[in-house]
Amino acid sequence: MADYKMHLLVCGGTGCKAAQSELIKTNFQNQLAERGLENEIQVIHTGCFGFCEQGPIVKIQPDNTFYVSVSPDDTLEIIDEHVVKGRIVERLLYTDPNTKSQISESKNMDFYKKQVRIALRNCGFINPENIEEYIGNDGYSALGKCLDELSPEEAIKIIMDSGLRGRGGGGFPTGLKWDITRKVENEQKYVVCNADEGDPGAFMDRSILEGDPHTVIEAMAICGFCIGADKGLVYIRAEYPLAIQRLKTALKQAREFGLLGENILGSGFSFDIEIRYGAGAFVCGEETALIHSMEGKRGEPTFKPPFPSQEGYLGKPTNVNNVETFANIPPIINKGAAWFSTIGTEKSKGTKVFALAGKINNVGLIEVPMGTTLREVIYDIGGGIKNGRQFKSVQTGGPSGGCLTKDFLDTPIDYDNLLAAGSMMGSGGMIVMDEDDCMVSIAKFYLEFTLEESCGKCTPCRIGNKRLHEILEKITNGNGTPEDLTKLRMLSHVIKDTSLCGLGQTSPNPVLSTLDNFMDEYEAHVKEGKCPAGQCKALLQYVIDDEQCTGCTLCFRICPVGAISGEKRSPHYIDQALCIKCGACFEKCKFNAIKIA
Amino acid sequence: MEMINLTIDKKPLVVKKGTSILEAASSIGVHIPTLCHMHLHDMNIENKPGGCRVCVVEVTGRRNLAPACCTEVAEGMEVRSHSIRAVNARRTVLELILSDHPADCLVCAKSGNCELQDMAHHLGIREIHYQGEQSHYREDTSPAIIREMDKCILCRRCEMMCNEVQTVGVLSMINRGFHAVVSPAFEMNLDHSSCTYCGQCVAVCPTGALTEVDQTGAVIRALSDPSKTVIVQTAPAVRAALGEEFGLPAGTLVTGKMAAALRRLGFDYVFDTDFAADLTIMEEGTELLGRLNKFLAGDKDVKLPILTSCCPAWVKFFEHHFPGLKDIPSTARSPQQMFGSIAKTYFADKMQVKREDLVVVSIMPCVAKKYESSRDEFAVDGNPDVDYALTTRELAQIINLANIDFKFLPDEEFDQPMGESTGASVIFGTTGGVIEAAVRTAYELQTGKTLERLDFEELRGMEGLRKATIDFDGLPINIGIAHGLGNARKLLEEIKTGASEFHAIEIMSCPGGCIGGGGQPYHHGDVEILRKRQKAIYSEDQSKTIRKSHENPYIKKLYQEFLGEPLSEKAHHLLHTEYFDRS
Fold first, then answer.
1. Which residues form the 4Fe-4S ferredoxin-type domain (chain B) (predicted)?
2. What does the pLDDT read at residue A2?
3. Which of A496, B530, B560, B573 is most buried (CB neighbours < 10 A)?
């Protein structure tokens, strides 16, 4: 390795790449070369830093300066000022919204203060395309430790004792799953990594694969060693081209370093990994559907048992774990079960990665210890609600999770608490809603997703969700009746109770949790014909306030359907029978004379 | 054998480990309703995708309801099949299915025979609480099968039959969610696919989504046309099942009543396909002996084993999937087509009826026979040898239309000459029957000796693949039998690799043979019905005075007067066919 004096870490996550971080990197490289500095200063594309709201991010080492919202036009200044002259470019530093002071190191930012990074430990710190950097950061030492010092039983015991539970949504104890698969006797077994991340807005697994692919490879090899498998498969959606490319590079490097393949590190243990591509069906994240998809069959779930640990890929015992679960394995082996189990709550150990999204100031990827409250995540890390609006609800667990109210803000996040609150951990999507969000529409939105993604195999999910959606549509169109609310609840319970797989069993959660927590909004829709958030167009009425209207005729001229009439310089009138509620008059009126009733 | 203790509806019971809740409940008289589930016991055919969710039951300690069809019993399990939670869920699930199903029961081909309709009645559905958009698909009509997927409930039985049992691989679920439907690939028409028209999808469809092409109207029109002479032939398996359509117990032989009913319907001559089955044995048996003797004489080029060719779905199957083997099956046409060919030549001449004025109707246990009769090679100048092929169910339909009280009909005989048949021909209707009939004749022709024993038990049964060696007076003849195209595929793969040990193989597409054909009264998953039909077929064989095809006096006469010898030039022209590469 060349001995560089300085490293420019440019975020190479998908979000920052979309914001031209590739060009930032190229600019840096060219400008350094022009100054003859290319052998002294290295530019690295890292994985996601997590603070996506402030991307693209450039971090400078060794002094840890953290530049935010960098554009390709800023690179020259960073080179000339920071790199050459050693002067921090203050205008590119993060400004604390509360103190208005500028912060140059990420560890001092509220966004990062409460985070504990285990699964994301290398994301944003190492070059994911260079195995040496991973190795330099303790990489592959856990695999080495397993092969050198531990028996499979001992390694499994560490995982069991750590209390690690599956991060894909189910929360099944990982060590126990490994132990079960180990105990099934068969000459051929498989390790499968579920990288079919499908929750809308979630990118935990993608970021890990993009930022630290070797951790997944190492963990899969450890799993193979533990359960007695010599073959691993990563099932990844084809829509993740960058993750796929980095994974491929990592696999190639791992083979070159003898960390995959025959007789790894001279231990006699052989293991290799293949990539299988998914076509983006959400249901293929369900493990039996995932396995069918890998077998070239229709991606639809089958009844369990038999569990994959008994009869999985090609009928052989198969251990399926999610990307984030695997990313926790090497640190647990390295640092021990005791270390890991001190983090988190009684029944949920360690940390959890969340993709923060919605009406929140700091959108991004975070990792917090289990037991952190929703309030800490939303307000301390997330920086509160955008535009000073009021918090209304937070949706956890992806499309099958529930919407929680402010009453749950102090709930410590773990598997059991979220379940008890009527939501779930899921794979880690977290979407924040404010007072402008209509909760009936939100329930409808999530149901639209499950409706699209249902495989159609079982009746309740195929037809039941369709009917639920139709009732919600009826309500948001202003045609709902109080009886519909009873129907929604009854049908939701039957769908949960009778669906074949986890998708159907959880699909009514957004409906049930909004019924439980926001009944007043539903009732306003069906009893008063009103949408309190003003989102359901069919329930809106635009009216003109006679007092405010000056008769300027702007609304009259803009109305596309001729619903507005009135004499010049006297108050105008909207014919409700003609109004299509496009809102053009509302936006155009200069005198705030048009009101939403 | 590990045993499991559990209670179902508070009744304690002990069952074998691995038993499903459904089977366990059934053993103590608790009949949990099912819709998608179907189990043809002993044939190893089971459909349990766990998709309909009608069979859900409450299991103490379980978070959600358990589908009884695919949940195995466990020690100490407490099952409640009719708790309010289970019943409410079951009814709601059924209401959901009904909410996406056309409410045209009164005019549906399956009305009165529909498992969905029965279930709605059974569960006392009086209102569908959840209404909404319904699925719509275009109707797909082929020469034999009509698909009306608006009526599909996604039980996946057809898919299982097509893929797992028949290994034809035409039907599978496509699209997702509410738009999911069972279809040929890319929603192509069935007649563009490699569908064999075996009709097993129709046989197991619980609703009216898959039905046969209805030719009853055309037959009724022909019968009422005074310028036409309309004759009918009835396949052997029909007589063992037709009674079921009129409430008679499965396995009731109704040969005489059927002949009487056909006569009352106005058919000018009531003949029997069995006659043509005897003719088939003459041709196919002679062909077998010819190939066998060449082989014994050291001819290396001779094609063995010889495969039967009576089953049109089987013929289409090898044309699609094993075109390289198309010179192995016997070239003999099926009995239906031999009958049509002889009827429109020999019989038409005898009666001095012009070909175009003679209408040949066949009554078949099969939907593929509709397709077979429409094949170009079985027509002369566009006039088909067999004009219409009705299924057993369609015959029952026109008997009803004619106000005939079937149960009280007297027994009547078939007309001559094409109504005379032997016991050998009637067993064509069951798996093993064609080859047994062939053995009876081939043995005597080969050895010149009289068979002492006519019942070849070793060739009978319901096993999907069977084999037996028959001693032809010192010469061991190895015989293979397959029913179900998946089983046939296994034998064909052996032939392909040269590993086949057989001299002759009988293949029938449908499980059980023609008694289980796609045109038979619906068995609704009750394999016992097929056994009873099989038994009836063998009892008709027993009751016949003549039980060997070559002893049928009218067949002898047919050769004397018209055909000459088996495999003569005329016989080749009228009774044999060729096969095509459809791969």
1. 186-215
2. 56
3. B530
